[in-house]
Each structure stands twice: as C-alpha cells, then as structure tokens.
Design a protein that fits this description.
By secondary structure, the chain is α/β, with parallel strands linked by helices. It is 36% helix and 20% strand. The protein contains 14 helices and 19 strands. Helix 1 packs across helix 5, helix 8 packs parallel to helix 9 and helix 11 packs parallel to helix 12. The longest helix is centred in the last third of the chain and has 22 residues. The protein is globular, with a radius of gyration of 24 Å. The protein starts with 21 loop residues before the first helix and ends with a helix. It binds S-adenosyl-L-homocysteine, iron/sulfur cluster and FE3-S4 cluster. The site of FE3-S4 cluster (F3S) has 11 residues, from helix 2 and helix 6.
C-alpha cells in the first residue's frame, strides 16, 4: 500500500536508489519536476487518459498506473485528446487485439494534430513479440511500451520517455518474467467503496487454449500480511467490499515460505472490522476445496457467488484442454456447493469450438448447462492463440459450425438462467448501492450479495452504503426494486 512518501524529501542530486519501491519514488519525484515545468509553461497541469481492456487484473493494474500518474501531478481524464494516453491491453482472444489496433489507428490521427502527446502501451499484448514487432513497424507514433511484469516501473520509464533527446525514439522495456512483487506504490481507485485486491499473480495451469500463463508468468502469491494490511487500509479509507483477485484463487498460498490455503486467507480477511463483503475471482474447479465450501457456508461476509469456469461439458475435450477435471467431477462439485449453500449463485465461462469438438461433445456442454442451472454464463468462440498447444492441433472446427453452436448455446444459457436467476423476486435483500443508473437518473444501481444487479428509485447519497431493497420484479438478468423504508412509508 501507498505509504504517502513525501516526494519533496527525496534528494534529487543523489543517484537513483537500486531497491524498490524507493527507486520508483525517486523517479516519481523527477516526473513531478517535469510536471511543474509543464504547469509553468501551460498554466495548468498535463492530462492523462488510461484505457483498460480485458479482465479485473488489468482493471486493478490500471488503478496502480493511475495512482502513480496522479501522485506526480497529472489530471485524469476520459478523453483520448490528452497529454499522456496509455492503453492497458488484453490478448486473451484475437478480437481483444483487433480492438486495440483499431483504437490505436484513431489515436495516431489525434497525435498528428498534437505531436507533443505521449502514447504508451502496456499489459498482456505487449508480452508477445509479434505484437511489439508490429507496433514498431506500423505504429511508429507510439512512445512507450512496457509489459505486465514491470508495471511498477512506470515512473522510471515515463521519466526516460520525458527526458529522451530524440522524441521519435521508442522507449520499450518488457520482461520475460519475474519473481518480484513490488508493494507500497500508490493506487487511484475507480470506486470509493469497493476495490479489487491482488492476492496472487500469474498462472501455472497452462490450459491448452490459454495465453495467460505466457503473458502473466508463473504463479506468485502475495504475503497474507501484505494483503490484510492493504484491506485494512482500504476499509479505513471507506471501502466496504473487496474482490480478491487471482487467475486461480484456489491455489493461493502454495508458493509462500509459510504456505496457507485460500480458505485460511478468507478467514483472516473476514476478521477485518468494518469490511462488509468479500468476493473473489476466479475459482478453478480442480482446486476448489471442501474447506472453502465450509468457510463460505459459515461466513457472514463472503458473498454467496462462485464463478466456476466450466469451459466444456465433454470430459474428452476437458482432457484436451488440460483442465484436470471431468464432466462428472464438475457436476458433482456444483451439486455439493449448491447443497451446502442453497442461496449460492453459480456463474461460468464456456468455450465453443475447441479443436476436435464434435456435435456430441457440444451436446454434453448443453446438458451440463441445463443440469447445473447457472445464474449466468460468459460464452466465447474459441480463438487461436499463437504459442499455445491448442493452436497447432490439426482438427480446428470450421467457423460456420462454431457460429451455429455458439448461437444454440447462447439460447440454452438464456433459457436456463431465466429459470433460476429470478428466484429472489418478492424478497428483501441487502444491496450495495454502486451508482446512479446511466439510463435513468432517478434510479440507483446496486448489487445483491450474489452479484445480481438491481435498479431502484433512490437518492445519490446512498451510493457506497448497503441498503435493504425489496425485489419487485425480475427482468431477465436484473431486478427492479424498492428501498424497504420507502415501501413502508407508502
Ligand atoms: N483464470 C480464469 C480465466 C481467465 S481468461 C480461469 O481459469 O477460469 C477468461 C476466460 O476466457 C476463460 O475462462 C475462457 O473461457 C476464455 N478464454 C481463454 N482463452 C480463450 C481462447 N483462446 N479462446 C476463447 N476463449 C478463451
Ligand atoms: Fe488460462 Fe487456465 Fe490459467 Fe485460467 S487457469 S488463466 S484459463 S491457463
Ligand atoms: Fe486479458 Fe491479460 Fe486479463 S490477457 S483476460 S487482461 S490476464
């Protein structure tokens, strides 16, 4: 966590320290000198715009990047017509890359008009050599590139970029991997009342379709003391809900000098006074323990929601995917969880068209969706990721077959989730009020403990509080409700 180090106290005439995070504080102070000079010339501070693609990990990384930029004096903006624009990229599927290239093209047009602006790229795409080569060849207006392992180096790299003699020279620093976890840098939270908390980085599972282990590196768990300290500081700062983040939270703690289980970490987090809700993402079915189910069942703070990616309902395909569970084991696990925690909401991820998927395999996926009754499911068309084992499997499924299966699965998901996910209608539930509804400013939007969205009339002062709401109507994937107090007053 940020220790509020006073940048004024740093001796700028000394050599930069070698150790972290002191080294980055030194460069933050240097960047701030540049910002002050900018203010003298332009009569106002420089602006910075961060665009985040991809998952919760990237969202959390972007908060850290924003924290650094704000600490050195940049004003955050949503407009890409800014002095510093940073894209935090994702490469999990090919369309994620295409989106970034499309947006980058438009950014090039803005930069033609404003040659002084700085354009930076970071995140998962930058860990791929072909991507970096393409940017160097075809997007030469990019100023700065860094990867997933060294985001903490933003102050140093930005400083290098600001001070470079040739403004056309790209600054690039990408590491292949790291065993380092740098703590105690600032972060700028998107929401005042809820926050993601990294508990681990990287992934060791190597599912055969997935690029994440290659771009995020080997699994590393954060020290539990650091995690709890961060949660305590967040709560002291007004946070009531935390989301513990990892690619496979169920294997948390295995690499620590004093190993502890994820369920034990949850129990430590629960003891933080003032913290109301604990969520986590993502759970790999192969590692979900009975201990975790038991801890969730007993807990008043851990939200009854599990995101449990299925990927496929065919044991044959699951084996090819290197998922390490069978269809039967998944069904058994889902039933065990539902038995222990009847109010639980189960959500999932499913890939359609993995190499070699037959109609029979696909039917098994449809069957599992029907049997489990997910509250919702993210469905994806299989996307070839260069460098993964599945990319070179020779039985890729034709596009039209995948498309047709995808449409059928989507219908199946919608039908089954409509059956189960409205089950709390006409009950009173606790809602964390998150924002004013973007379509109708008379309404507020919040989330139930099981993560379902609810809209209801109310005043913006309620944002960040937990309020009792009666669920009047279920509308497919969200509820319309009324605050209990307002209902009683009617
Ligand atoms: N660590 C998480 C998921 C990370 S990626 C887990 O294990 O569940 C998020 C989702 O993207 C995955 O669950 C998977 O469904 C999907 N995905 C990953 N690689 C993909 C690919 N090559 N093609 C299509 N979908 C993919
Ligand atoms: Fe990818 Fe599998 Fe790791 Fe999830 S567990 S990030 S799907 S390799
Ligand atoms: Fe994308 Fe990287 Fe997350 S590839 S899904 S942003 S870990």
């Amino acid at each position: 966590m940020y220790n509020e180090i006073d940048l004024d106290k740093i001796d700028m005439n000394a050599e930069p320290p070698a150790e972290e995070p002191a080294r980055q504080y030194y460069f933050m102070a240097k960047c701030r000198e540049w910002v002050q000079e900018f203010e003298r010339i332009h009569g106002g501070g420089p602006t910075a715009c961060i665009q985040t693609f991809g998952c919760q990990m990237n969202a959390k990384d972007s908060e850290k990047l924003a924290g650094i930029l704000v600490a050195v004096g940049f004003d955050e903006t949503n407009s890409e017509d800014a002095d510093f624009v940073l894209y935090n990229t994702c490469t999990v599927r090919e369309n994620a890359n295409q989106r970034v290239y499309g947006r980058l093209g438009q950014l090039g047009v803005i930069k033609k008009k404003r040659p002084d602006m700085i354009i930076a790229l970071c995140g998962c795409m930058m860990q791929e050599k072909e991507v970096v080569d393409k940017i160097k060849a075809s997007y030469r207006f990019v100023d700065l590139i860094f990867g997933t392992h060294n985001i903490f180096q933003l102050p140093e790299l930005l400083c290098r970029c600001l001070m470079r003699e040739n403004p056309k020279k790209l600054v690039a620093e990408i590491w292949d991997g790291t065993d380092k976890i740098v703590e105690s840098l600032p972060a700028e939270r998107k929401y005042a009342f809820k926050s993601g908390v990294n508990i681990m980085f990287g992934c060791n599972n190597f599912c055969s379709y997935c690029i994440v282990p290659y771009v995020r590196g080997r699994e590393r768990s954060r020290n539990p003391k650091e995690i709890i300290r961060e949660i305590e500081m967040l709560v002291a700062d007004g946070v009531v809900e935390v989301m513990l983040l990892g690619q496979n939270v169920n294997s948390y703690g295995k690499t620590l000098t004093n190993p502890i289980s994820f369920a034990q970490l949850l129990q430590l987090a629960e003891q933080v006074e003032g913290l109301e809700r604990i969520r986590f993402m993502t759970s790999h079915p192969k590692d979900l323990s009975d201990e975790l189910i038991e801890v969730m069942k007993r807990s008043k703070k851990i939200c009854p929601h599990l995101h449990l990616p299925l990927q496929s309902g065919s044991s044959r395909i699951l084996k090819q995917m290197n998922r390490n569970y069978t269809k039967e084991q998944y069904l058994e696990l889902a039933a065990k969880i539902k038995n222990a925690i009847p109010e639980i909401s189960l959500t999932t991820d499913i890939i359609v068209g993995f190499p070699g998927e037959t109609e029979e395999d696909f039917q098994e996926t449809m069957e599992v969706v029907e049997k489990v009754g997910f509250d919702s499911a993210f469905t994806f068309v299989y996307s070839i990721r260069t460098g993964t084992p599945a990319a070179v499997m020779d039985n890729q499924v034709p596009e039209d077959v995948v498309k047709e299966r995808f449409d059928r699965l989507l219908k199946q998901v919608q039908t089954t989730s409509a059956k189960v996910s409205g089950r709390q209608v006409h009950t009173v539930q606790k809602v964390l009020v998150e924002e004013v509804n973007s379509h109708d400013s008379r309404l507020l939007t919040g989330r139930l403990e099981n993560n379902t969205v609810v809209h209801f009339p109310g005043e913006p002062q309620l944002i960040g509080t937990i309020t009792q709401v009666f669920l009047d109507e279920f509308k497919g994937f969200y509820y319309m409700g009324t605050i209990v107090q307002d209902r009683e007053e009617r």
